[in-house]
Amino acid sequence: MLRPREAVRTVPAYHPPLAGRNGLRLDFNENTAGCSPRVMEKLRRISREQLAKYPEREPVEALVASFLKVSAAGVLLTNGVDEAIHLLCETYLEPGDEALIVVPTYSMYRIYVMAAGAQLISVPLGEGFRFSVDAVTSRITGRTRLIAIANPNNPTGTVVAREDLLWIARSAPDAAMLVDEAYFEFYGQTMLEGWRESPNIFVARTFSKAYGLAGLRMGVLAGDTQQMRNVRLVSSPYNVNAIALACLPEALEDQAHIHQYVEEVRETRARLESGLEAHGIQFWTSQANFVLARVGSSQADSARFVEEMRRRGILVRDRSSDYGCEGCVRITCGPRQHGDELLTGLSETCRELGIGVAQGVSRP
Fold first, then answer.
1. Where are the beta strands (DSSP E) in the chain?
2. Do residues 343 and 26 make contact, with C-beta atoms less than 8 angstroms apart?
3. Can you name the CATH fold of 19-30+256-355?
């Protein structure tokens, strides 16, 4: 009987709860206002001839490289950040190698590492989800071939200092070091060109969050030019579709749209943190477009909160099954209008469930 590889048979299934997402979408960290109007206009002008041809990635890669101020030879457009993670695993991991992640974090690191047959080493964040360089470097061995760190992290919104990331990369020169900057626009600090100091560093970005292009599946992986040549060997030349390639230049050109959206998200994030504090709900100060909050002590508590918010037309994400996140929900922040709806729904839900200042306030 035909059987998949042993590594594939042990990979945990990942089923994002995408069905029935009616209401204000504050559950998947998407742009809740939408992409630039310039992108929509471009979509209307795409011709049948463009769709009939195989997509040409390189000209848009050169444009993205110029925007990022890095060498075009060190840039690869990908089908979202997910493909960037997958390509790094395919390029650098052999069965039996070790890969380090810091938990809780993005689920796809685990899945792609395990699918490659590598051993996953999970390093827990410290108290209050604080990052410890020593905890990570102490787990580096001669078999370590990949280290993946989201910065800002998902689902905590916490960040790692640049010097700490460099120290980890230098401590594992034989490992690919991925710094996943999916939420860069809301944080503003980057490891781009960190490979000049440590050539094993890679940086991934996405156009799904601030740019509002999640449906087009567009990301970018950047790194040392020699290392990126290796990654390109396992990448399909047609991995990014023609519609996405046609629209991305328009999205990049409209930086006024991005800056306005990011400014409003940051404002909503501050308002949400203040609202959580006023309700006595523990949360973690975030540098992303979401906030992680503990609304109870168990998954039953977080599930009730999620359902009450859904009844009010607001979708938030239950993260209680993540390491250290018992009773936690993750709430995406949108523009001002959506922030108003969120805060009203939050207050009503807290009253309905009896969540209040009796819990005490914690702002790590």
1. 24-25, 75-78, 98-103, 119-124, 144-150, 176-180, 201-206, 219-223, 282-284, 290-294, 314-315, 317-318, 328-332
2. no
3. Aspartate Aminotransferase, domain 1 (3.90.1150)
With the C-alpha atoms ordered 270, 276, 278, 280, is the resulting torsion angle positive or negative?
negative
Tokens representing residue 23 in the block: 């209401």
Domain at 37-253, CATH from 1.10.760.10, 3.40.50.1970, 1.10.10.10, 3.40.640.10: 3.40.640.10
- Name 353's Cβ contacts closer than 8 Å, sequence gap at least 6: 295, 304, 305, 308
Burial class (CB in 10 A: 0-12, 13-18, 19+), 159: buried
Q: How do the pLDDT tens digits run along the chain, 364 residues long?
A: 999 998 898 888 887 777 777 899 999 999 999 999 999 999 999 999 999 999 999 999 999 999 999 999 999 999 999 999 999 999 999 999 999 999 999 999 999 999 999 999 999 999 999 999 999 999 999 999 999 999 999 999 999 999 999 999 999 999 999 999 999 999 999 999 999 999 999 999 999 999 999 999 999 999 999 999 999 999 999 999 999 999 999 999 999 999 999 999 999 999 999 999 999 999 999 999 999 999 999 999 999 999 999 999 999 999 999 999 999 999 999 999 999 999 999 999 999 999 975 444 444 5
Query: Cα 279 to chain center, whole Å?
Result: 28
**pTM, two decimal places:** 0.95
Distance CA 145, CA 94 (A): 9
The domain segmentation of the chain, as residue ranges, is: 19-30+256-355, 37-253
Q: How far is CA 72 from CA 175, 177, 231, 242, in A?
A: 23, 20, 14, 19
Cα 313 to the chain's mean position, in Å? Answer: 24
> Does residue 209 sit in helix, strand or coil?
coil
Q: Which residues pair with 78 in a beta bridge?
A: 219
Q: If DSSP codes are grouped into helix, strand and coil, which group holds residue 264?
A: helix
